[in-house]
Amino acid sequence: MKRQVNIIGQSPLVIQLKQLALQVAETDMPVLIVGETGSGKEVLARFIHAHSRRAANSFIPVNCGAIPAGILESELFGHEKGAFTGAVQSRKGYFESADKGSIFLDEIGEMPLETQVKFLRVLESGEFQRVGSSETVYSDARIIAATNRNMYQAVAEKNFREDLFYRLRSVELQIPPLRERGRDILLLAENFVHEFRQKHKIAFEGFSPEATEILMRYPWPGNVRELRNLIESLLVLEKGKLISPEILEKHLVQRNRYKSLVHDPAKSEKHELHVIYSSILQLRQEVGEIRQMLQHLIHNPYQPQYQPQLLLPGSPEIFIPVAGEQEHPSPEAHPEKRVEGQIEQEGLQSLDEMEKKVIAQALESCGGSRRKAARALGITERTLYRKIKSYGLKDPGPAGNG
Ligand SMILES: Nc1ncnc2c1ncn2[C@@H]1O[C@H](COP(=O)(O)OP(=O)(O)OP(=O)(O)O)[C@@H](O)[C@H]1O
Ligand SMILES: [Mg+2]
């Protein structure tokens, strides 16, 4: 089967991502890819491998979330004959198979803690032992990991080792969600139309201008995968006829039980408000999490692994406690309840105010660094920059010196 190794996209965020990926491809550094479901994490991992000096050797994808915890260790590291019931012969694991190539560890956040210990050693020295053996094996596999989980939370909840996390993310590549890629949505749609027109031998009349507008406005919770699947079912089920807003809506609703997207200004305004409310709730929760992380750092000052390992220009930084950072009370048990109450009391006109406050707070918690605050808020730096301008907040510049 032909595998996607080309990243389709011309939006500034995607161009920047590709440039960074090409830079890291030349090195052997471990890479952590972060992005929502369906946003193209595996495509990016294959792109890195294909542009590395390892391209002629294997690329081995492993989904850590799909392999039962008890089996994952022997799958990754291999096992000796008789190591456990059913181990009738010795077998090499994925790390050995990926020697001189790359191993793609998807859903790394799901890796069990015991396996993480062994994995950290591989990451640091390339060494490990097969299950049931005391002989040390070496693998020169380039490690690319991916996650769509909030790893800070996994670390705070002690489900993921923080030393491993910080080692793993010496280079972190963030894939923007499709809804932030502007006209890339149409570019991707065009590519998928081309692909499925050929595959199913269908003549396609195209999208009406109104339907095209919906494609641009729709939030794409399932990202590129959702767009791809949608295009295939539109072509096949609608037999290539012109896609009107009504047809498009019908398919989107069937997929997501998504509320009306067409011709109902009241409904769509309500939807937009709902989206804004949810993002404020989410922002608040994330700021709470960041505070927790900062507090943890303040109370555990000897954490050498917290030193940023900035090896590439423009690669994301990690949080470092800021001197004189004010201590905050621990986050309330249910911050979202409080915010909901606030919304009811303060009414709609206060929405902007609330968002402005959350942003100001995030900038403050992140020592005035726009880049860190954007990461903490889960939005792109560009979006944050726009919001800072529109709320008349002081723009601290990317690293906070401006
Ligand atoms: N930039 C892109 N250009 C072309 N196709 C893409 C792009 N990004 C994603 N795709 C396609 O979208 C689908 C999902 O991509 P991929 O499997 O890489 O996403 P993912 O982030 O790994 O998803 P998951 O979180 O479910 O593991 C695939 O069919 C892939 O080929
Ligand atoms: Mg994937």
Name the descriptors.
alpha/beta; single chain; 3 domains; globular; Helicase, Ruva Protein, domain 3; 7 strands; 16 helices; Rossmann fold; 402 residues; binds magnesium ion; binds adenosine-5'-triphosphate; 49% helix
Explain what this protein looks like in three dimensions:
- Helix content is 49%, strand content 7%.
- By secondary structure, the chain is an alpha/beta fold.
- It has 3 domains: 12-176, P-loop containing nucleotide triphosphate hydrolases (Rossmann fold), CATH 3.40.50; 179-256, Helicase, Ruva Protein, domain 3 (Orthogonal Bundle); 265-390, no CATH class.
- A 5-stranded parallel beta sheet has the order 2-3-6-1-7. A two-stranded antiparallel ribbon has the order 4-5.
- Mean pLDDT is 81; it is low at 258-268 and 304-349.
- The chain binds adenosine-5'-triphosphate and magnesium ion.
- The site of magnesium ion has 3 residues, from helix 2.
Number of strands: 7
Q: Per the principal axes of the C-alpha atoms, what is the gross shape?
A: globular
**Distinct small-molecule ligands in the complex:** adenosine-5'-triphosphate, magnesium ion
Low-confidence runs of at least 5 consecutive residues: 258-268, 304-349
Using the CA coordinates, give the radius of gyration: 23 Å
Number of separate structural domains: 3
How is the main sheet built?
5 strands, parallel
Binned strand content: 5-15%
- Any idea what the CATH architecture of the largest domain is? 3-Layer(aba) Sandwich
What is the count of DSSP helices, taking H or I runs of 4+ residues?
16
Helix content: 40-55%
Task: Summarize model confidence as the mean pLDDT.
Answer: 81
